[in-house]
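Troubleshooting: if your tokenizer reports a length mismatch, compare your output against this known-good record of 136 residues.
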Amino acid sequence: MNTEEQRSAIRSVIEAESQGFFDHNFDAWATKWSQDKNAMLMVNNQDGSITHFSSFEAIAAAIKEEMKGEKTSYSVRRDNWNFSFAGHLAVVHFDQYFTDNKGKTYNSKESRVMTWYGDHWLIMQVNALWDFKNIK
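Known-good structure output:
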């Protein structure tokens, strides 16, 4: 599985999932996730707390709520990709930079656990560690 074709496919899933979120297109976003009870989303917050959702159902409810808010346009850059493959799973780490329409750039260290569903990859887990002290 550790081929450039598979690494490219994983990057495409991650990019499409983000775009679905930015566009407030729940269906496009959801098609990139494993709709499984073991799915997980965890992010740190600006106040130092952690937000954690276990199960696709819980994640989807939170994302639907987020999508009710104002759309914000971002440009996204991802660097320093690192892939590890084991059977039908891939663990992916990368640096992510979001620049909003006001020119502020937010940096995060990201990881994804991806799962192979016969002919495509889906996101099983997201961990996002935001660097709120160094927003530029």
